[in-house]
Amino acid sequence: MTKPDPKDPSNLSLQYELQSPWWNKINDVLGGTERMRGVGAQHLPQHPEESDNAWANRLAVNTLFNQTELTLAAWVGRPFSEPVKRVDIHSQLEPFLDDIDLEGNNVSVFARKWFQGGVAKGLHHVLIDFPVVGEKKDGLPRTLEDDQKENLRPYWVDVPAENLISANAVRIQGKWVLTEIRILETIEEKNGFLTTFKERIRVQTPGHIQLWELVPKTKRSRKKEWRVIDEFDIGLDFIPLVTFYTDEQGFMLAKPPLLDLVNLNIRHWQSTSDQTAILTVARFPIMAASGALNEDNIVIGPGHWLHSPDPSGKFYYVEHEGKAIEAGRMDLADLEEQMAQYGAEFLKRKPGNLTATARTLDSAESTSPLQDMTIRFNDAMETALRYTAAWLKLEDAEIGMLAIITDFGPEKFEKVDLDALLAAVKSKAISKKAFVQELIRRGVLGEDFDPEADMKLIEKEIKKAAKQEPNFNPPGGPQPPQPGEFPPKPPGGEE
Asked: Which residue intervals define the domain DUF4055 in the entry (predicted)?
């Protein structure tokens, strides 16, 4: 085993080495059928005594039921059912939000990708960067006015978990403060009609950046080594990297919310392969014979006849009883139910079996795991906006706020929930207004529902109905009670 070179910037952190097997497994499943086939025996082991050809055929026809991808899309879709809210954004920052990454993506599109990456892997990063600029021709120091004239401004860079190969930090007043990060970047180079890609490592410390690339050790050598190809100072005294954690386990450590679901999905992939294989066997019955000659060239088919020298001999088909097929089908159904339930659990406000009343009345105090993630993500976006402002020296200004919705209700509204709410209104435990607001929150009523306007419509309908109500009291007959007259006087009765 080669001893790591302490001067090699490509050395991986311990956190990276611990989590990378999880990320690879998640990427394999999210990559779909072709990627799962590509990794071969890693997720579809070869059975004992199974031939290489049989295993290869089993792999080639297997298809992934990608519940992981469906669940991730459902989780991400709920908080991003509306664009990212912009609240009192500073006038200098507002124009940036329509092209936050200088690649044409607005802040809603970029934030969705950031959130999705974090939900998939447990953490995802964004670097707030600034274009590299040279010295002014007049030799004077650059100013913010110079940057504005040249349309230079900060922008957000997406940094997936796999690309941050190392990060170091120290604790200051209870918070982690970054002292160094190393990011693996892929650079596209064009040479005529040829496009090539090469790796580069960005080593960033407070106020300084180094760019490393693999270059030949000598002009004639094929061996390469990492060397600094460029370095420069920047105008910040901190590292503007923001990490979104879904469930922080430590510095740069997080358990991916999808990990257990991915393991179930891989089991489903394996069970699907076995089920397909057994169906292939079951659909082709085997011809058997007793008392037949041991001949090599027995032809079975139309226009051919079979014979046996043994009077008691017979020919027959051996068919599968189907018990194993049914067991395999049930296994797949059970796995699919477990995977669907896993996704639903992240939308529930409280684990366990609660009564309808408890689930309804406690909803304001409890949050689902997915809602917890959205709250953390809003904190991350706030930090990113603050770092963006720091490039423009707006640290002390009111920069505003970015936010995604965090209250999107449970997965479905059950009848017992409605009954509990109606009972609460009837017993005056909650007001009618609170009842309507809860129906809106749970998606029973649309978000554009206006309770006050609806109340006016109800009053209007009541008045209209009263005018149209027929009078069934004949002349001289009993009259309805009048104010202060109860019970009514009978016709001709005495006072």
From this structure: 257-392
The answer to whether 100 and 156 have CB atoms below 8 angstroms apart is yes
Residues 126 and 241 grouped into a single domain: yes
pLDDT in tens, 51-110: 999 999 999 999 999 999 999 999 999 999 999 999 999 999 999 999 999 999 999 999
Eight-class DSSP state of 4: P
What is the DSSP code (8-state) at residue 96?
G
Q: Which residue has the higher pLDDT, 138 or 432?
A: 432
H or E stretch at 175: strand 175-191
Q: Which long-range contacts (CB under 8 A, 24 or more apart) does 235-239 make?
A: 235/130, 235/207, 235/391, 236/206, 236/207, 236/390, 236/391, 237/206, 237/207, 238/177, 238/178, 238/206, 238/390, 239/178, 239/179, 239/180, 239/181, 239/204, 239/205, 239/206
Non-local CB neighbours of 253 within 8 Å, separated by 6+ positions: 15, 18, 19, 123
- Is the Cβ–Cβ distance between 371 and 348 less than 8 Å? no
Same domain as 457, residue 331:
no
Encoded amino acid at 65, one letter: F
SS3 track for 282-315: HCCCEEEEECCCCCCCCCCCCCCCCCCCCCCCEE
63 and 152 belong to one structural domain = yes
**Residue entry with tokens 């607005």:** 106
Given phi > 0 = left and psi -120 to 50 = alpha, else beta, which region is 286?
beta
**Residue 477 belongs to a domain:** no
> CA end-to-end span of the chain, whole Å?
115
pTM over 0.85: no
In a domain, 288, yes or no: no
Domain boundary, last residue among 404, 428, 455: 404
Q: Which two tokens stand for residue 475?
A: 């002349």
Same domain, 259 and 219: yes
Residues 6+ apart with CB under 8 A from 429: 361, 423
Host H or E run for residue 188: strand 175-191
Task: Give the domain range for residue 124.
Answer: 7-42+52-133+145-283+323-404
Pairing of strands 253-254, 248-250: antiparallel
Three-state secondary structure call for residue 211: strand
Residues 56 and 178 grouped into a single domain:
yes
Helix (H, G, I), strand (E, B) or coil at 354: coil
pLDDT of residue 328: 76
- Are 418 and 378 found together in one domain? no
pLDDT in tens, 23-62: 999 999 999 999 999 999 999 999 999 999 999 999 999 9
In sequence order, the 6+-apart residues with CB closer than 8 A to the CB of 371 are: 349, 406, 407, 408
Q: Does 327 share its domain with 456?
A: no
Residue 340 lies in a domain: yes
Inform me whether the pLDDT recorded for 376 exceeds 90.
yes
pLDDT at position 174 over 80: yes
